[in-house]
Amino acid sequence: MASETLLPPPPTVADLTDDTLRYILHRLAPADLLRAALACHRWRRAAARCVEGTPPPLLGYFFHPADTPLTAQIVASSGALHPAAFAPLDASSPRLSLDGLGGGTKGFSIYDVHLGLVLLLPESLPSGILPRILVLDPASRRRALLPQPPRDALPGDRWRGRRHIVGAAVLSRAHPSRLCFDAVCLTVDDEHPRAWVASYRDGECSWRALPQDTRVTVAFDPFWFEGRCVHAAGDIYWHICNSGRLLKLDPATLNFSYLLAPSELGDRNKKFRIGEAPEDGRLGMATVEDQELQFWVRGEANWSDNGWFLQKRMNMRKVFDTVPGLPRDKVSRIICIWLSDIDAGRTGKLFIKTEGYGRYSFHMDTAKLERLATEDGKEYGHPIYAYFVAWPPAFLAPEI
Prior knowledge:
This is F-box domain-containing protein. With 400 residues, the protein is mostly beta strands. It folds into two domains: 70-83 and 262-379, no CATH class; 98-260, no CATH class. Helices cover 10% and strands 35% of the residues. Strands 3-4-5-6 form a four-stranded antiparallel sheet, with no helix packed on it. A four-stranded antiparallel sheet has the order 7-8-9-10, with no helix packed on it. A four-stranded antiparallel sheet has the order 11-12-13-14, with no helix packed on it. Strand 21 (359-363) and strand 22 form a beta hairpin.
């Protein structure tokens, strides 16, 4: 009887070379890469070399729920400000919350979500003096309540009586594993914008007031600035109501400038929103005025309108016909429908607000319209902030 040939044992995961392991991990989605990094020390080291250049995973959305008006109103009702809520992207996403973080968020509302941080300001902003800024890291459950700038932050401050506080934004983050960041507060001092920068390091906050940017003149009532900003294509923008331009802040130079919307939008007083093109992150602008979707992209083209070219145009009449109870006549629809956000999660969706008929998301490729409502019947408030985890995560980020 011939002796049986013993076959070598099949290879295991442990037999993978480092190069092969990194090749496999490089092909994983960010969420799966994080799960793989928790397997063992070797996989964690390999995953740490794969996170560079990988986009951070979108976990969900923060917003303040709003009561849906029983009937449509020409003037939007403010309603009660409900505590911030989080809607996870899917069943596998963590259910984050701002509740229970130190002193909580009572009396504050969200003004910015960026780099894994949530920035909040008091519901009622003071006049002439800058407010305290609350910054939270929902993933690590850390918080920082920044003090107001000291009086000597701006020597000889003669603008206090003529200062308008617009809002604040997250400027940068030093490291994802630490609560070290810079925030900027925008004020208009006597017709010129000014940036106030708060730097938070190791539990200590320092302020510096930059000079007025006299190259930019605010020749209108600064009340028309929207307090909430938009991060898009590396810059920070503030919308201006009833205007064909936006205020832009370059985070690298802290210089202000105006950005013109396409004349087809701005010259006709159409409501538009700025954001990013979902496919490549280029600066984008959208509107759904007159029951027509337009999506404009910033860039080079044979023909442009103030540096923009029209990428997509779609008739929205049949889409809006599916909204229960929405009036059929064009004038009523113009009054009670407007675009509230371009999804900063770059999902290809727009967020559409109706006065009295709910809040919706609309996918520009599939033309799918979905109602956005909480489990207790409230609608998603404005704005709707996409939340990305700080990237790379702390346990994969190199220490500095």
